[in-house]
C-alpha cells in the first residue's frame, strides 16, 4: 500500500500556496475497495497495538493526534475505529468545546497544554487550539470574550493579530517537537454535498437526533468563510515538525483507513525498541527465576 506520509494527495508539509480545492473529499486509493479496507484496517489496528506497547515501554516519545473538521465530517467515528485496539492506559482522548470562564482567563494555548500526553502515550485532541484561528476567524466577535489587553474594538483584530496567533502556534509545536512529541494534524475534508446528506440522516433517524444541532446548520451558512479559515490555517502552520494531513472524508471507511495508516507509518518510523536492562538487572532476573522455580507449590 502507498506510504501516505509521503503522498502529496494527502500530506502537506509546506503550506505555501495551499488550496483546499485541490484536495478531493471523495478521493480514495483506486485499488482499495470498502470490503478489502475492513481487512486492512484490522491488520493495521493489530500492528498499531503492538507498536503502542513499545511506545509505552520506550517512554521517549509522545504522539499527539489533532483532529479538525467541519460538522459531520466524522471525527468521532474515525477516532473510535482507529483507536479500537489501543490499550486505554496508553491513550487519552480530549474533546474541546467552547472555552469556559476559567479557560478564558488564560492564554489560548493553556487549556490544551493541560491535556498533553505524557511520553509513552498517544494523545488525541478532538478539536484543539486551532479553533482559535478557525471559529474565531469566522466569528471574530468571540475574541472579545478573552478580554485581551490590546483588543478593544474590531479594528484591533487585524492581520497582525492573526499573524501573532499563527506564530504562537508554530512556536508551540516546534517546542513540543523538540521535546519528544510527534504531532499529527488531521483535517477531515468533507464536501458540502456529503455534509448535507449526513445532516439529513441525523434529522431522519431518531437515534441520531442528539447529534444534530440547529446551530450546525447556521454554521453551514458560513461555508466559504470556513473554507478560507482552513486554508490559511494550513498555509501558516504546515511544516515538517507538524504536517497537516488532508483526509478525504466523503467515504468514512477510507478516512478511517487513511488515519490508521498514517499513525502506523509514524510509529514504524520511530524504530521503537523495548528498553535494554543492565547486567545487574539481568542477574536479579535470573535470581528471581531460580527462587520462583525452587519455591514449593
UniProtKB/TrEMBL annotation:
GO biological process: polyphosphate metabolic process
Domain annotation Polyphosphate kinase-2-related: ranges: 33-270
Highest taxon of the lineage: Bacteria
Alphabetical keyword list: Kinase, Transferase
GO molecular function list: polyphosphate kinase activity
Pfam families for the chain: PPK2 (PF03976)
Entry-linked PANTHER family: POLYPHOSPHATE:AMP PHOSPHOTRANSFERASE, POLYPHOSPHATE:AMP PHOSPHOTRANSFERASE-RELATED
UniProt record similarity statement: Belongs to the polyphosphate kinase 2 (PPK2) family. Class I subfamily.
Annotated protein name in UniProt: Polyphosphate--nucleotide phosphotransferase
Organism in which the protein naturally occurs: Solitalea longa
